[in-house]
Amino acid sequence: MATITLDWLHIIALLGAVQGLILACVLAVRQRNRTANRLLAVAMLSFSISLAEAVYYAAGLVQLFPHFFGAAYLLPLLYGPLIYLYAVTASDRSRRLTRRDALHFAPFVLAFVAGFPIYLMSGPDKIAFYEALQRGERPLLLQVLDPLKLLSGITYATVTLLFLRRHRARIKDSYSSLEHVNLQWLVRLAAAAAAIWVLAVVFRLTELLQRAEFQRGDDIITLAVALLVYGIGYMALRQPEIFRFDAADYPAGATAPAPPSAIAPESVESRYERSGLSDWEAAALKSTLLTAMDQDRPWQDSDLTLADLARRLSTTPHKLSEVLNSQLAQTFYDFVNGYRVRYVQSRIESEDARNLKLLSLALDAGFASKSTFNDVFKKHTGKTPSDYRRSVAA
């Protein structure tokens, strides 16, 4: 038996495959948000098989284990749907997979059925098929599937990023701080996946233009996938809240009332026409809300949600959201953070707080992080906190 040698790149890929397998097992047994975690577990398993197959080819094991040949060829058709559905279910713990979701996997199933005769080949026939591929003899089926995989990856990466962008806008109707619910970790994951697909397309176009195989293209893609798996494992441990997302009232991934600035006034009315909240009740709730915000200062709780505030006012989150959107023309996020900004402004202008650090004032106001404080303060005042303090001192 010949000695198997691997270069550093394939050793990294092998370690990535092992880590992906371990992470898949950990995610599969998690009890919280099981649908999302199991989808990500399947994605990790798919990545691991693909990385293992890259090592399999690099080590020249086709002759010894021909039946593993092609095991990961169709898996890229699963990457996009799995990450997209993971994003959807991670943003809404109550979301379950439906029959309609199965349509996302139709291309994979059809491709598998079309390629089933290849999987049924004997060992010697698979070796002969592999050698033919090495000589550049690609059957029509593979000529169709290769660009289809690239198209699927680019499309799903784009759809996932757009979904996460909408998600960030929706959660402003339920949360006053977005640090633990904005799925920023997942945005980075989707962006990294999109970059890998773009890289794959570039290598493919290079091969077509030069009419020759780009020798290290597959190795670079393998390395990128391995790094992606490492990144997922690291972020899963560093930011475990991604696996514990809770919706406050209605699912954050579902359609929530849009801010009036984005929709016509009649749309706001039609959205809440079945809430049963009369004009008089809306005005009374608005008055109660403003009084509570001024006297009780619930906005100083950095984890304040729409549902929390509704419980304080003995109303429902839906009715409170209606008042915020139709009576005050603000999202919950902007409404609460407006109080926090005004509090910091008043403290900056007061004599007793001139020696206090801005971060201390921000935390006291209910902001959860310095970066959020800076962004929100500038949005509301047109100045950074430091610039505002300097203008007051002047």
Question: Would you kindly provide a written description of the structure presented here, covering whatever features stand out?
Answer:
By secondary structure, the protein is mainly alpha-helical. The chain folds into 2 domains: 236 residues, Rhopdopsin 7-helix transmembrane proteins (Up-down Bundle); 134 residues, Arc Repressor Mutant, subunit A (Orthogonal Bundle). The protein is built from 17 helices and no strands. It starts with 7 loop residues before the first helix and ends with a helix. About 8% of the residues have low confidence.
**What general form does the structure show?**
elongated
CATH architecture of the largest domain: Up-down Bundle
**Could you report the average pLDDT, rounded to the nearest whole number?**
83
So how many helices?
17
Question: Which radius of gyration do the C-alpha atoms yield?
Answer: 27 Å
Q: Helix- and strand-based class?
A: mainly alpha
Distance between the termini: 82 Å
CATH class designation of the largest domain: Mainly Alpha
In terms of DSSP E residues, the strand content is under 5%
Q: What can be said about the biggest beta sheet? A: none
Question: Number of DSSP strands?
Answer: 0
